[in-house]
Design a protein that fits this description.
single chain; alpha/beta; Arc Repressor Mutant, subunit A; D-Maltodextrin-Binding Protein, domain 2; six-stranded mixed β-sheet; five-stranded mixed β-sheet; 11 helices; elongated
Length: 322
């Protein structure tokens, strides 16, 4: 490892807060990371880190070197992007992060289409719920619901995100179709639950247009949208998921939208996040394919009959009385 590489390793240690985490990112032993940082200190003739048994902190010289390292990292990325953009076809590796539900519903299909057009590009699609360090971990693109407040990133909207309340025809036959909030709240529900987020309620707009939350009767909690969909189709209960996760099942009749006169607020925006720097050709082409695939309005909403008029979108309608 040369000195510039050791400087970039120091940036990882500073951003992640420990030798161990930097070692995991680089797939190195912790002792190797420690030795390279010690070697860098020896080469520069200054101490870069204050070490204790419980924590690490940067010295003044360390802070200056980390800033230099970040500038070096950006320069290397920019140079690589410029070189790639001079080529006619994208190359290299495209690294994308998305939450599981978005990755399965949108990311995989976009990746498949992208690979058909650009087989020379390696795709690294990571499905994860955590907020990744886009620049530090070398991501070209991140898909998220909602905006991430980070001045180092560009947030570009991809599509609106609307929820849909659904149940199977068999469930409706057994329990009846709910006509008010009180009835809906009593029905057994399958709800989304992860360490980062829980959707065990239904956000809706009351008669004054104010957003309210209706607690759901959660009988099954899971971090997998596919489990919720399957449970709903099997008649285990109602489910509340983004329309993009259920449109196939709704369009073919396996899931029936419920209480479509109830006004629901937009549930965030599906957003593309990428660094403030020269965008590699591979990233531009992937975004183009993704936008074409999604469409405007989103193709999943267009494929649900009457969805444009559901949940108060077409009339500006308000909530139903409980």
């Amino acid at each position: 490892m040369d000195q510039p590489s050791r400087l970039l390793l120091l940036v990882d240690v500073a951003e992640l807060g420990s030798f161990s985490e930097a070692a995991k990112r680089r797939e190195l032993d912790r002792s190797v990371v420690s030795k390279h940082i010690a070697r860098l200190e020896q080469e520069l003739g200054v101490r870069l880190l204050n070490r204790s048994t419980r924590s690490l902190s940067l010295t003044q010289a360390g802070q200056a070197m980390v800033q230099q390292g970040r500038e070096l990292r950006d320069w290397m990325y920019h140079t690589q992007a410029l070189a790639e953009n001079m080529q006619q076809l994208p190359s290299g590796r495209l690294k994308v992060s998305a939450p599981g539900i978005l990755g399965r519903c949108l990311g995989f299909e976009a990746m498949r289409r992208f690979r058909q057009h650009y087989p020379d590009v390696q795709v690294d699609l990571q499905l994860e719920e955590r907020r990744v360090d886009v620049i530090g971990e070398g991501y070209d693109l991140v898909l998220r619901v909602g905006d991430l407040k980070d001045s180092n990133l560009v947030a570009s909207p991809l599509a609106p995100n609307h929820l849909l309340i659904g149940a199977s025809p068999a469930f409706i036959e057994r329990h009846g179709e709910p006509r008010d909030l009180a009835t809906l709240a009593r029905l057994p529900a399958l709800t989304f639950s992860s360490q980062q987020f829980q959707l065990d309620y239904l956000p809706y707009l009351d008669d004054q247009g104010r957003e309210q939350k209706l607690p759901l009767n959660s009988q099954v909690r899971t971090s997998e949208a596919e489990v919720i969909k399957r449970g709903v189709m099997e008649g285990m209960g109602i489910g509340v998921l983004p329309a993009f996760a259920m449109y196939n099942e709704v369009s073919d009749g396996r899931i029936v939208p419920l209480m479509t006169d109830l006004a629901l607020p937009e549930f965030g925006v599906i957003t593309l996040l990428y660094p403030h720097r020269e965008m590699p050709l591979r990233t531009r082409r992937f975004i183009e394919i993704l936008r074409e695939m999604v469409g405007s309005p989103p193709q999943w909403e267009a494929r649900i009959p009457g969805f444009a008029e559901m949940y108060g979108k077409g009339t500006g309608g308000m909530g139903l009385a409980s």
